[in-house]
Amino acid sequence: MITEATIEGLRAQVADWRAEGRRVALVPTMGNLHAGHVQLVKQARTVADRVVVSIFVNPMQFGEGEDFDSYPRTMEADGEKLAAEGTDLLFAPGVAEVYRRPQAEQTVVEVPGLSAILCGASRPGHFAGVATVVCKLFNMVQPDVALFGEKDFQQLMVIRRMAEDLEIPVEIIGVATVREADGLAMSSRNGYLDADERLRAPAVYRSLQETSERIRDGAGDLGQLEARARQQLEAAGLRPDYFHIRRASDLQPPTDQDRELVILVAAYLGGARLIDNLTLTR
Ligand code: PAF
């Protein structure tokens, strides 16, 4: 596995592959890799000849008081995992390589509407940070295909919309959420949970499953279902940020005619903010 920290070095290597006619995949990450990331790399290998994984803890997507400084940085272990999965190139730039200017002077990629709701309402500026860095990574690597986890459902929609609106010629693939045996979605932030919180955390996925079952059994009052799920999360010792049943195509409240739905949840537990989602057809 080649490791590159500069855009110039990355581009030179990708140019060589392009000259050989290789199809290139990009898996953007912030490191602290778990089985969910490994799944992204595995899938990338099936859709491309060469796989680039980026590890960059992106300051622009963290708000004030969030966990940018404490976000786990585990480069050595990450490198071993990526090499074992047959990653061709690890791109691990520093902040100054990605952002040449102070943040206040940085060009920002903004996806309006979608970025302002759900996680965007609780984390103002977060999705502008995500869209900007992913746009930059797309321009640096110019991948044929890029893969992202469906656990971050709203993020995936923001990135798809950004690439479509800016005519970036990249195929975007969403990869199914990888879960622990008790249903908890894999996340780097699960590491913030202590033993007691870890036992409570599966309540998040349970709330999604139960709500999904009720909708499929014909329950029509979605507001009531949302309120009930929030209560269940509170009873399990979590502090719900939001629990919403939305139209899967645009994350807006569904009408009675909408069949394709997604249930999205964010809840605080100790030092962690857990998010998860479940799609369903009713
Ligand atoms: O999902 C993440 O790890 C990050 O938001 C991403 C897509 C790598 C952008 O920094």
Question: Could you describe the 3D structure shown?
Answer:
Strand 8 (260-269) and strand 9 (272-281) form a beta hairpin. The termini are far apart. The longest helix has 16 residues, at 126-141. By secondary structure, this protein is α/β, with parallel strands linked by helices. The strands form two sheets. The chain has a six-stranded parallel beta sheet, sandwiched between helices. The chain has two domains: 2-175, 3-Layer(aba) Sandwich (Rossmann fold); 188-276, Pantoate-beta-alanine ligase, C-terminal domain (Pantoate--beta-alanine Ligase, Chain: A,domain 2), CATH 3.30.1300.10. It contains ten helices and nine strands. It has helices at residues 7-19, 35-47, 75-84, 95-98, 119-122, 126-141, 153-165, 195-200, 203-216, 222-235, and strands at 2-4, 24-29, 50-55, 89-91, 145-149, 171-175, 239-247, 260-269, 272-281. Bound molecules: pantoate. Pantoate (PAF) is lined by residues 28-30, 58, 61, 130, 133-134, 152, 155.
Please identify the top-level CATH class of the largest domain: Alpha Beta
Strand sequence of the main sheet, in spatial order? 1-4-3-2-5-6
**Number of structural domains:** 2
Question: Average pLDDT, to the nearest integer?
Answer: 98
Summing up helix and strand content along with how strands pair, one would put the structural category as alpha/beta
CATH architecture of the largest domain: 3-Layer(aba) Sandwich
Number of helices: 10
Q: What does the main sheet amount to?
A: 6 strands, parallel
Hetero ligands: pantoate
Strand content: 15-25%
Rg value? 19 Å
Fourth-level CATH superfamily of the largest domain? HUPs
Shape: globular
CATH fold label of the largest domain: Rossmann fold
- How do the SSEs run, as a string of H and E? EHEHEHEHHHEHEHHHEEE
